[in-house]
Amino acid sequence: MKNNENGSNNNNSNRFLYYKPTLLISIGLSIFQLVICVLNYFYWYSNDWFDEKIITQLDLFLKTITWFAISGYLCYSNYQKIPIFLRIWWVFYFFLSCYCLVSDLKHQGFTVTPTYVFVSEVVSIVMGVFFLYMGVFGNKEGEVSHLQQPLLNGHGDDGVRKNVRGDDYEYPFSNAGIFSILTFSWMSPLLAEGNKKTIDLEDVPQLDSGDSVNKVYPTFKNKLYSDNGNGDQVSTLKLVKALLYATWREVLLTGVLALVYTFASYVGPYLIDTFVQYLNGRREFNNEGYVLVSAFFFAKLVECFSQRHWFFRLQQVGIRLRAALIALLYKKGQTLSSRSKQSHTSGEIINFMTVDAERIGDFSWYLHDLWMVPIQVILALLILYKNLGLASIAAFVATVIVMLANVPLGKLQENFQGKLMESKDGRMKKTSEILRNMRILKLQGWEMKFLSKVIDLRKNEEGWLRKYVYTSAMTTFVFWGAPTFVSVVTFGACMLMGIPLESGKILSALATFRILQEPIYNLPDTISMIAQTKVSLDRLASFLRLDDLQPDVIEKAPKGSKVSIEIRDGCFSWDPASSSPTLQDINFRVFHGMRVAVCGTVGSGKSSLLSCILGDVPKVSGTVMLSGKKAYVAQSPWVQSGKIEENILFGKEMDRERYEKVLEACSLKKDLEILSFGDQTVIGERGINLSGGQKQRIQIARALYQDADIYLFDDPFSAVDAHTGTHLFKECLLGLLGSKTVIYVTHQVEFLPSADLILVMKDGKISQSGKYDAILNSGTDFMELVGAHKKALSTLKSAETAADSKHAKGIEENVSVENDKIAEHGEEKKREASNKDENISPQAQLVQEEEREKGRVGLQVYWKYLTTAYGGALVPFIIFVQVLFQTLQIGSNYWMAWATPISEDVEPPVKGSTLIFVYVILAIGSSICVLVRALLLVTAGYKTATILFNKMHMCIFRAPMSFFDATPSGRILNRASTDQSAVDLNIPYQIGSFAFSIIQLIGIIVVMSQVAWQVFIIFIPVIGTCIWYQQYYIPTARELARLIGVCKAPLIQHFAESISGSTTIRSFDQESRFMDTNLKLMDSYSRPRFYSSGSMEWLCFRLDMLSSITFAFSLIFLISVPEGTIDPGIAGLAVTYGLNLNMLQAWVIWNLCNLENKIISVERLLQYTCIASEPPLVIEANRPDGNWPSHGEINIHNLQVRYAPHMPLVLRGLTCTIPGGMKTGVVGRTGSGKSTLIQTLFRLVEPAAGEILIDGLNISTIGLHDLRSRLSIIPQDPTMFEGTVRSNLDPLEEHTDEHIWEALDKCQLGDEVRKKEGKLDSIVTENGENWSMGQRQLVCLGRVLLKRSQVLVLDEATASVDTATDNLIQQTLRQHFSDSTVITIAHRITSVLDSDLVLLLDHGLILEQDSPSKLLENKSSLFAKLVAEYTVRSSSSFGDLSAS
Fold first, then answer.
1. Domain ABC transporter: where (predicted)?
2. What does the DSSP assignment read for 752-767?
3. What are 1161-1179's pLDDT values in tens digits?
4. Radius of gyration over alpha carbons of the chain, in Å?
5. Residue 501 in contact with residue 915, Cβ under 8 Å?
6. Dist. CA 503–CA 898, nearest whole Å
7. How far apart are CA 1310 and CA 1345, in angstroms?
8. pLDDT at 795
9. Secondary structure class of 1198 (helix, strand, coil)
10. What is the pLDDT of residues 999-1040, one digit of tens each?
């Protein structure tokens, strides 16, 4: 295939010089000869035939055939030299043309020879001169060209290109010649490709540099900020100016084209009266008919060329505007201050990009409509004045009334549009938050409650949507009725003024109204679009005015300074307006190579201190000085979707040796061995296919690989187990970073002795600072932290002592016997599983490419859409009303043409009053039809949008967790915003327009066939050709439309990820790289858009040409028939309708294609209504007792689990019993399957084999909500939702305030909440950002205290809190869950030492299971080794290590 392509490219480039002009002139001459041949035929047909004329006709016919043959030959030949027979023919042709002209002039002269024959001979001679030159000199030039070619093209005689997509193919638009640009032929290769196969993004050529965001964005940004140098003053007006400045050339060009189009479109109405008089026998000069036909045809051609290029260039402007805006929004999102971020959530910021920037891009369509309306109205009035005299003033007044009627409607629409956008923002914000936290919602069984919140928000949005669509229905009614109203007023004025109405003048007036109808029809659209765009521009301007991070917070230390970080008299506040700053009196200095530890209780300001050093917290006073590059590891891991390797390299070149060292130091090698694709594994969105520890270690690896000077770690060891934590501290902080400046926040006291400086935080101040031993005795705050740690250690020691003295009692004997069996069974399973895994066929990544339908949009999609609302009952009514409207419209025009005289001297068939009365009755009838149709259409559209929304959201919320793991939220949000918007606001009108335009087209065909059925002779083949063109175009257009959807999701996802990781991106100074990625993704999104609009114009241009030819033929037929055969009035009516033929024919196809493109939004929504659902929430036939589980015993038998059918097993046959009412600890290395076990217990993942019984009841047999509502969990990532403290603790609203306060007091948050203004109603921002990580964890503890279940799971629940808070949580749980079954997954060994039972997992198998004391007795057990390691680590040995 590629070789063929190369070959054809090579052949094209090897053709003789001037090949293209030769081919184009040949085609032009062929068409010209055909027109002359037809004209000659009609000319002699209307006069008499005789022998000489037959020979002339035959001669013209042969010439036409010959030139078509030569054109075809040139088109498909690959000659490098011109064939000799062609050269002879061209020389002969020139001399023959000269002879013919001289002969005609000599024998017949100007008088006898028809004008067109004379013109034909002159054209032949002019063309002949070019062909003579080609025949004599063409080859010489060609040979030189061929010799030069290998040098020019950069490849030798073998003709094999190194790059399939050659220069011509890369930029087809910018490399196209003038003819190719005029006719859109540069699109042909892509359309041909689309017909051969389903095209993908790599088949779509690159954008021209002028259309790339890299060219537009800098111009736009410089203009926007040039006036005042900062973003504070960005106003809507400045934004508009900058946008216009960035695209002024295209805007100017489209303005000129729009003007040319407007003038050309009025040529037809201007000439109709003359044409009717000509048909009536009033001739001004010879061949007047042919001159009129030529004028009509030429005006149509000019109209076609100008309109097509006007539309195409407008879309080009839209693509550029959209790209520039998205780039600017992205840049702004990266520099927003934390306060600004709190006022705009990530969901809202994404909405600015997906909805507002998109709308401003779409507005380019309407750019010139406003100033064109007055011009069109003035031209219309001039034509009316010529025909109807002073009655045109009445027409003007009527037009103004109609336009003024729109003002209140326009204002209403703007208001409703603004409210609609606000409510949509609120919904998208909530949806985005829910998708981020879907795992928690499923674990707690809250998803249906949160779905009802989204549905409520949507109901509010629907209220505004309903108002908006019904207002637009009224606007539609006013404007579809407008031309009728204007014509009634005008003709009425004529009657009153006594101006005689003649059919020619009336038809001219009707044609004028019809053209005036277009700007008036479009005016509501334009005004509504202006309203929408104004709202969007205001929103963007207000967003761009938000505060950025202070640029001068951090000062660079002087060169040669030994100080790495220094803060003097620092006072910082997240909220600059607040009277109590977040941090105050901060003074410390860190020298190069120092290790600084930051510790303190929950909420004391540790993370805020790191944020000060990063420049994220607004500085109230003081100075911050830094020296060197920074690297930062956040407390909540931020990983990008993409390969693990890309996350670690983070934009740096691969240095294999350094990379391996970093993997080793972060103990990632074992994890990478487990993963099917190693470091090439694609991480799902927000790292969903990695455990918390793995994400944290990838984050640490990213920082280590950067080779910075200053490293900031925000509690990185809390998310990993004890063994890994020790390894990380030794290898990373003491090893690889031994010579670097490191500041680490930690809750683990054992990591403190090795610090050169310890900062103890309390209430936003540094309460103590110094070395470990020095501050241990100098104050109480540090003593408290160390004391809590020692208490935990003493528990550990006593456990070991107890084990040594063999005092273990109770169930231990039974369990230990079982344990031996398990160990044997485990080894066997491990071998089995490893063999099994090898046999699994090539594994697939968890996150798959976005599914995109291929081929034709199924008729089923249309059918489902049409029948969703009321079973499709409204559809036949809508069609019937439109048919009735069309009939009444044609009837009223037919009446006017028939009932008025041709000229003044003819008696009118009816009285003037009857004429106007019937016309008014028909007009009122058609207006009522429009109103009914508009109301029915919006009712059906609104109902359908509502049903589809509810269906899709129900399916998404009921989808299994695996769906969210494998589907980036960008894809879901794209459907919930962009596609839902299309279904809300566009698709009903799109389907309506298609149906209405077809009905109008049929109406025109009926009228034209009434007059001249012979038109069908040409009409049928033309329609056939149109359909063929449409069929040829649609495969490419459809795939391009789908690619637009598919290319948008990565853009949204990257945008969303960059906003959530902006701190990390800034701390690594990677803003420019991320900006580049955004620009690349933007261009990938613009590419299919650009070529989609090019392909649309390619089709429309060809359809316009065909319909212009049809129109010309019908006119030629009308002037050729003998006088009196056809009623001139009715013939004129046919012409008035025919003037619209090309517009309507193109409009039908355009609507069809646009519908095919837009209906893809419905297809995408329907895709998500077919997601496989989770098992039922409640199974009525099998509901557990009200008090289940009463005992809490859990039996697990041969449990095997994998995350997806194409993934390997994660749990490989677990068998164990967890006794009821006992505390069980689950330990194991990161990735051993601990979290998977919990997910299976809550049925987030269904087992591949085996079963879990709780109190003898198989959990797979009951409903999910029955199961999840009876179990409690404190999850690994503490999650809070936007809302209030009350809604976070009790989302289902089941508890009283008294109970909530009780729970808050138990989890030590009562005092904290009482301090806040709103108490239980105090605000929680998105993700709980205004609460510290430890406080969020305590809120999660509060939730389980309220719920009080018999089975409680702690999934690494105390990872984010200091030891004192950890002890507090453990104590609270011991006190309130003494008789419950508690399963703890822990990294801190102390958390599981007081358990009754410990399970040690490795690679998805239980390797050890017993009481802690029994396991500690056996010094060779893996558990004993883990404890020993923790003890060593905790006995301050790091101080010695670092000293050595």
1. 565-788, 1196-1428
2. STT-SEEEEEETTEEE
3. 898 899 888 888 888 888 8
4. 40
5. yes
6. 8
7. 13
8. 57
9. strand
10. 888 887 777 777 666 666 677 777 788 888 888 888 888 888
Q: Which residues of 1008-1037 are buried (b: 16+ CB within 10 A; e: fewer)?
A: bebbbeebeebbeebbeebeebbebbbbbb
Amino acid identity of residue 142, one-letter, is G
Is-contact 453 430, C-beta < 8 A? Answer: yes
Neighbours of 933 (CB within 10 A): 25
Task: Tell me the three-class secondary structure of 1350-1392, residue by residue.
Answer: CEEEEECCCCCCCHHHHHHHHHHHHHHCCCCEEEEECCCCHHH
User: Which H/E stretch holds residue 554?
Assistant: strand 554-556
For the record, the structure tokens of 772 come out as 């470990």
Cα dihedral sign, 68-69-75-80 = negative
- Class of residue 143 by CB neighbours under 10 A (exposed 0-12, middle 13-18, buried 19+): middle
Task: Report the DSSP pairing between strands 554-556 and 619-626.
Answer: parallel
- Distance (Å, whole) CA 613 – CA 791: 34
Plot region of 1356 (φ>0 → left; ψ -120 to 50 → alpha; else → beta): left
Q: State the pairing for strand pair 583-591/563-572.
A: antiparallel
SS3 1402: strand
Q: pLDDT of 41-84, one tens digit each?
A: 666 655 655 556 667 777 777 777 887 777 777 766 655 566 67
Determine the 3-state secondary structure of 78 from DSSP.
Answer: coil
Rounded Cα distance, 750 and 1433, in Å: 6
DSSP annotation of 735 reads I
Q: What is the DSSP letter of 336?
A: B
d(CA 548, CA 608): 18
CA distance 417 to 419: 5
Nearest of 1183, 908, 1135, 1148 to residue 1015 by alpha carbon: 1135
**DSSP codes, 846-896:** SSPPPP---SSPPHHHHHHHHHHGGGGTHHHHHHHHHHHHHHHHHHHHHHH
Instruction: Decide the pairing of beta strands 1283-1284 and 1323-1324.
Output: antiparallel
Q: Cβ-count burial of 127 within 10 angstroms (0-12 exposed, 13-18 middle, 19+ buried)?
A: buried
The secondary element (H helix, E strand) that includes residue 1333 is helix 1333-1347
Which residue type does 943 have? K
Query: CA 594: distance to chain centroid?
Result: 47
883-902: pLDDT as tens digits = 999 899 888 878 877 777 76
* Chain CA centroid to CA 1152, Å: 23
pLDDT tens digits along 541-579: 888 888 888 877 888 888 778 888 888 888 888 887 777
DSSP state, residue 975: I
Q: By the 8 A CB rule, do 1404 and 1212 touch?
A: yes
Q: What angle do CA 522, 524, 529 make, to 5 degrees?
A: 95
Please write the tens of the pLDDT for every residue from 164-204. 343 344 678 878 777 888 888 888 889 988 888 888 888 88
CA dist., res. 312 & res. 364, Å (int): 11
Does residue 208 contact residue 169 with C-beta atoms inside 8 Å? Answer: no
Residue 1343 has a CB neighbour count (10 Å cut-off) of 19
Show the tokens assigned to 1062: 């902006």
DSSP output for 390-403: THHHHHHHHHHHHH
Q: Specify the long-range contacts of residues 194-203, CB closer than 8 Å, at least 24 apart.
A: 194/1035, 194/1036, 194/1037, 194/1039, 194/1040, 195/1032, 195/1035, 195/1036, 198/854, 198/855, 198/1035, 198/1039, 199/1036, 199/1039, 199/1040, 199/1043, 200/1043, 201/1043, 201/1046, 201/1047, 201/1084, 201/1087, 201/1088
Helices (H), ranges, 1061-1140:
1062-1067, 1071-1120, 1128-1139
Length of the chain measured in residues: 1444
Collapse the DSSP code of 710 into the 3-class scheme (helix H, G, I; strand E, B; otherwise coil) and give the result. strand
Beta bridge partners of 1384: 1225, 1354
Contact 698, 644 (CB under 8 A): yes
3-state secondary structure at position 633: strand
β-pair partners for 1401: 1228, 1406
